[in-house]
Automatic annotation (TrEMBL):
Transmembrane segments: 6-23, 35-55
A GO MF label: carbohydrate binding
Residue intervals of the ILEI/PANDER domain: 109-196
Chief site of localization: secreted
UniProt-listed PROSITE patterns: GG_LECTIN (PS52031)
UniProt xrefs under InterPro entries: FAM3, ILEI/PANDER_dom, ILEI_FAM3C
Domain of life: Eukaryota
Keywords carried by this UniProt record: Disulfide bond, Lectin, Membrane, Secreted, Signal, Transmembrane, Transmembrane helix
UniProt protein name: FAM3C protein
GO cellular component, one term: extracellular region
Organism: Certhia familiaris
Localization per record: Secreted
Name of the encoding gene: Fam3c
Family: Belongs to the FAM3 family.
Length: 234
């Protein structure tokens, strides 16, 4: 629709300029120096206008969080990525709001987690838990406090698995994760689930740490994921 509108506008402008030019030539209208210069170079002017509108018309639309297509009504757009080795932190975006990132300075080694209200899309909390040099107990306690209807987004950075125990993995699995049982040392993993979910979440990506396939020395490539989260209904 936008392309058709832009094309019509270009045609109208072109007709106007050509009409004015023809009239000025037929009736020998004397134009001032500036107008004479412009219409004397009509092809150049027209080509610039045409290129401008064509570029604007063909520019792909931007959707929330930069995802590839718009989400339907009563869905929240999200995009997230794991950390890159131990250099660049993960990023979590929901409804065009960056919730966690290195720029916001609220990410850290281990498992990074953002909690979002399933009805409103409002950010509730962000935390990260060091699963290499830290303790798993704070992670377990935090997981137990999550309320039903909460959207939970998780992303690893550096190493998110060494300190995980069976209890922590079970609590994350209850949020809809299937890969958490196999998450290993320096694996890259992103996950979006929810408290009270009745099925396994379709939003999960996991890449194993493998020295033969790693993109970075000691770490696999960054894993990214986007999608549309259904809004919780009463």
């Amino acid at each position: 629709c936008f392309l058709t509108g832009a094309a019509k506008l270009v045609v109208v402008i072109a007709i106007f300029l050509l009409t004015f030019y023809v009239i000025s030539q037929v009736f020998e209208i004397k134009m001032d120096a500036n107008l004479g210069h412009i219409f004397g170079n009509l092809p150049v002017v027209f080509s610039k206008i045409l290129v401008y509108f064509l570029l604007k018309a063909t520019k792909p639309p931007r959707y929330k969080c930069g995802i590839s297509k718009a989400c339907p009504e009563k869905h929240f757009a999200f995009k997230m990525s794991s950390g890159a080795a131990n250099v660049v932190g993960p990023k979590i975006c929901v409804e065009d709001n960056v919730l966690m990132s290195g720029v916001k300075n609220n990410v850290g080694r281990g498992i990074n987690m953002a909690l979002v209200n399933g009805k409103t899309g409002e950010l509730l909390d962000t935390k990260f838990f060091d699963m290499w040099g830290g303790d798993v107990a704070p992670l377990i306690e935090f997981l137990k406090t999550i309320q039903d209807g909460t959207i939970v987004l998780m992303a690893t950075y550096d190493d998110g698995a060494t300190k995980l125990n069976e209890e922590a993995r079970k609590l994350i699995a209850e949020l809809g994760s299937t890969s958490i049982t196999n998450l290993g040392f320096r694996d890259n993993w992103v996950f979006c689930g929810g408290k009270g979910i009745k099925t396994k979440s379709p939003f999960e990506q996991h890449i194993k740490n493998n020295k033969d396939t790693n993109k970075y020395e000691g770490w696999p490539e960054v894993v990214e994921m986007e999608g549309c989260i259904p809004q919780k209904q009463d």
